[in-house]
Specification:
Length: 290
C-alpha cells in the first residue's frame, strides 16, 4: 500500500483530499501539521500527523528521511517556500534512488510529487485555453496574474525534475472566475492523478480542472439578491490589489485532458442554482469562527 504525505493537510482542500485517499483503502496517509492542535485534527480524522512547517522545507526533508513516503501532494498556498519544498522532495527521491541503486535494486522507484496550482497562471484570455500551452513562455496566450507571476517558473522547475520524481501539476481554483470548481471535484481530480502518478499520466502531466464558467457579476448579483441588498453593484477596478486583479481575470481553461487521460468529470455543478446554499454555508462558517 503506497504512503502519501499531504502538505497543507488541515486546510480547506488538503483535509478532504487526505480523507478521500484514506477512504479509498488504497493509501496510508500522513499529514504535515504545524502544531499539536493541527495534529489533533488529523488524528481525529485517522490521518497520521507529522509535525513540520512548509515554511521550513528542512522539516519536509526530515519527514521524508524518516517515513516511507511514496507520494507527496502539495496542497498548500506556499509562495516563498514552494521551491524549497520541491527541492526537499527531489533531494529525498534522489537519495533514495542512489541508495537502492547501490544495492542493485531493479526499477528503482521515484517519489511522486503532485503540485496543486491555479488557473491564474494562464492570465486573462478570451478564447479557450489549453494546458498544453505552457504558461510563462512564448506559447502562452496570456500573462499570469501579478499575484502568481512566480508560478510558471516553478511549474517548469517541477517538470524539469522528472529525472528524479514522478510529477503532475493540477491547476484548479475554487475561488477563480469565470472558471470555478467545487472543492469536492478538485479532490476527485487530484485523487485520480495520485492513483496514476507512477507512469500512467503520459508525457505531459498537466491537467486543468474546471467545473463551469460563471462571471463575477453573475455571482455578486446572486449574492446581493440572497442577502437582500438593494444598492446597485458598482465595479471600481482592482485598485492596485494583485488579488483583486487575479479575481477579475477571464479564465477560459478547459478540462478535456483530465477526462481523456483518467476519466475525470465535475459532478458538483450548477453553482448559481445552488448559490443560496453556499452563502448559508459561508455565513455559518463565519459565525463559527467568532
Amino acid at each position: 500500500m503506497p504512503s502519501a504525505l499531504i502538505l497543507g493537510a488541515t486546510g480547506y482542500l488538503g483535509l478532504p483530499l487526505a480523507q478521500s485517499l484514506l477512504r479509498s483503502g488504497n493509501y496510508s496517509v500522513y499529514g504535515l501539521a504545524r502544531n499539536s492542535e493541527k495534529a489533533k485534527t488529523l488524528t481525529k480524522n485517522e490521518i497520521t500527523p507529522v509535525i513540520g512547517d512548509v515554511n521550513d522545507p528542512s522539516s519536509v526533508s526530515s519527514v521524508l528521511s524518516s517515513a516511507p513516503i511514496d507520494l507527496v501532494i502539495d496542497a498548500t498556498s506556499a509562495y516563498e517556500s514552494a521551491s524549497g519544498i520541491l527541492k526537499a522532495v527531489a533531494d529525498a527521491s534522489k537519495s533514495r534512488m542512489s541508495k537502492l541503486g547501490k544495492e542493485n535494486a531493479p526499477n528503482v522507484p521515484k517519489i511522486g510529487f503532485v503540485y496543486i496550482s491555479g488557473s491564474w497562471v494562464h492570465g486573462s484570455v478570451d478564447g479557450p485555453v489549453s494546458e498544453m500551452l505552457v504558461p510563462g513562455t512564448s506559447m502562452a496566450k496570456g500573462k499570469p496574474a501579478v499575484a502568481v507571476g512566480w508560478r510558471p517558473a516553478h511549474e517548469q522547475a517541477i517538470l524539469r525534475s522528472q529525472d528524479v520524481l514522478d510529477v503532475a501539476i493540477v491547476p484548479a481554483d475554487v475561488d477563480s472566475r469565470p472558471g470555478i470548481i467545487h472543492v469536492d471535484d478538485v479532490v476527485s481530480g487530484v485523487h485520480g492523478v495520485a492513483d496514476r502518478i507512477h507512469g500512467l499520466l503520459g508525457s505531459w502531466p498537466v491537467f486543468d480542472l474546471v467545473g463551469e464558467h460563471v462571471t463575477v457579476r453573475e455571482t455578486l448579483e446572486g449574492v446581493k439578491k440572497i442577502m437582500g441588498v438593494k444598492a446597485p453593484l458598482d465595479f471600481t477596478g482592482n485598485q492596485g490589489n494583485p488579488f483583486f486583479e487575479a479575481l477579475g481575470l477571464v479564465n477560459n481553461n478547459q478540462s478535456s485532458r483530465a477526462n481523456l487521460v483518467f476519466g475525470w468529470q465535475p459532478k458538483r455543478k450548477d453553482f448559481l442554482l445552488n448559490l443560496e446554499k453556499y452563502v448559508k454555508a459561508w455565513t455559518a462558517f463565519k459565525e463559527e469562527q467568532k
